[in-house]
C-alpha cells in the first residue's frame, strides 16, 4: 500500500518544524502525490513569486569576468556580453599575443648593446607590436571565424556595429598588453613607444579595407605591406628605424583619423558576411 504522511506531519512540514530527514521524505512523497500536495496550505501569490525568482536565477547564465568588468566600467550589459564573446579575445589568442610580446622583449634585451646600434635591438618588437591588433581584427567577426555568426547576424548588433565594437575591444586589449611590455624594453622610452601610432594607423587601414575586402584578406595585405615598409628603410636611407622616425610618425598621425572618417562613411559595407 502507498504511504501518505498524516495530517499533523504535513502541518509541521508546512510550518517548517520538521528535521531535515523527515522534510526530504515528505517532499519526495509530495512530488509524486497530487492529493497530498493539494493538502499542503500555501499562498498562490507567494508560490508564483517564488517560482519566478527561482526560474530567473536558474535561466540566467553566470556572466564572465570580462563581462562584469565591462559593466563596472559603464558598458551596457548587452554590449559587454557581446564583447566578452569576441573570438579573438579567447584565452588562446591572448596567450599567443603575450608569447609574441615576451619573445620580442627577450630578443631586444638579449641583443641590446652600447653604441649607435643599440636602438636597432628594438626593431623586432616595433615591427610585431602593430601587427597584433591586426591579427585580432582578422579573427574578430565573420562567418569563417565566429561559431555564433549565424545567430548574431539576425540581431541589431550585426554587421558593421559588430565588427567595429569587436575591433575596438581587440585594439584596446592589444594596446594594453603591448603598453605593459614597453617599459621592459631597453633603449630610450620614446623609441620604445614608437609602435603606438603605427598600430592605430594600421588598425584604421584594416577597417577601411574591410569595406571592400574580407577582414582576413585586408589584414594579410597590410601585414605584408608593413613588413615590407620596415625592410625598405635600410635600402632607401640606410636607416633600420626609418619607419619609426618623427616624419613617419607624423604621417601615421594624419592617416589614422582620415582612414577612420572613411570607415564611418562606408560603414554600411562593414559586414564580412555580405557578398561583395
Describe the structure.
- By secondary structure, the chain is mostly helical.
- It is 65% helix and 0% strand.
- It has 15 helices and no strands.
- It has helices at residues 7-15, 20-30, 34-39, 44-59, 65-72, 77-84, 91-111, 123-128, 131-138, 149-152, 160-181, 189-192, 196-209, 215-237, 246-265.
- Helix 7 packs parallel to helix 11 (160-181), helix 9 packs antiparallel against helix 14 (215-237) and helix 13 (196-209) crosses helix 14 (215-237).
- The radius of gyration is 29 Å and the shape is elongated.
- The N and C termini lie far apart (74 Å).
SSE topology sketch:
Elements: H1 7-15, H2 20-30, H3 34-39, H4 44-59, H5 65-72, H6 77-84, H7 91-111, H8 123-128, H9 131-138, H10 149-152, H11 160-181, H12 189-192, H13 196-209, H14 215-237, H15 246-265
Helix pairs in contact: 5-6, 7-11, 9-11, 9-13, 9-14, 11-13, 13-14, 13-15
Observed structural traits:
mainly alpha; 15 helices; 276 residues; elongated; 0% strand
| SSE pattern, N- to C-terminal | HHHHHHHHHHHHHHH
Question: Rough shape?
Answer: elongated
Derived from helix and strand composition plus strand pairing, the structural class reads mainly alpha
What is the subunit organization of this protein? single chain
Helix share bin: 55-70%
Query: CA-to-CA gap between the ends?
Result: 74 Å
Number of strands: 0
Low-confidence stretches are none
Radius of gyration: 29 Å
Strand content: under 5%
Mean pLDDT: 79
Could you give a short description of this structure?
The protein has 276 residues and is mainly α.
Amino acid at each position: 500500500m502507498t504511504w501518505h504522511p498524516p495530517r499533523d506531519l504535513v502541518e509541521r512540514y508546512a510550518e517548517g518544524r520538521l528535521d531535515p530527514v523527515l522534510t526530504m521524505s515528505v517532499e519526495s512523497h509530495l512530488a509524486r502525490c497530487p492529493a497530498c500536495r493539494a493538502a499542503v496550505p500555501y499562498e498562490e501569490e507567494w508560490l508564483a513569486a517564488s517560482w519566478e525568482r527561482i526560474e530567473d536565477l536558474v535561466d540566467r547564465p553566470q556572466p564572465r569576468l570580462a563581462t562584469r568588468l565591462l559593466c563596472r566600467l559603464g558598458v551596457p550589459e548587452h554590449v559587454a556580453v557581446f564583447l566578452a564573446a569576441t573570438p579573438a579575445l579567447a584565452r588562446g589568442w591572448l596567450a599567443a599575443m603575450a608569447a609574441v610580446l615576451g619573445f620580442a622583449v627577450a630578443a631586444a634585451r638579449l641583443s641590446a648593446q652600447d653604441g649607435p646600434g643599440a636602438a636597432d635591438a628594438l626593431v623586432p618588437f616595433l615591427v610585431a607590436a602593430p601587427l597584433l591588433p591586426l591579427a585580432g581584427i582578422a579573427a574578430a567577426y565573420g562567418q569563417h571565424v565566429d561559431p555564433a555568426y549565424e545567430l548574431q547576424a539576425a540581431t541589431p548588433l550585426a554587421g558593421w556595429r559588430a565588427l567595429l565594437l569587436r575591433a575596438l575591444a581587440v585594439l584596446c586589449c592589444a594596446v594594453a598588453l603591448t603598453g605593459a611590455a614597453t617599459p621592459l624594453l631597453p633603449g630610450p622610452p620614446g623609441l620604445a613607444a614608437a609602435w603606438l601610432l603605427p598600430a592605430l594607423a594600421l588598425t584604421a587601414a584594416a577597417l577601411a579595407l574591410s569595406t571592400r575586402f574580407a577582414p582576413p584578406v585586408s589584414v594579410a595585405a597590410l601585414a605584408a605591406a608593413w613588413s615590407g615598409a620596415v625592410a625598405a628603410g635600410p635600402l632607401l636611407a640606410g636607416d633600420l628605424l626609418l619607419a619609426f622616425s618623427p616624419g613617419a610618425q607624423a604621417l601615421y598621425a594624419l592617416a589614422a583619423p582620415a582612414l577612420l572618417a572613411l570607415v564611418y562613411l562606408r560603414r554600411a559595407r562593414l559586414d564580412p558576411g555580405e557578398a561583395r
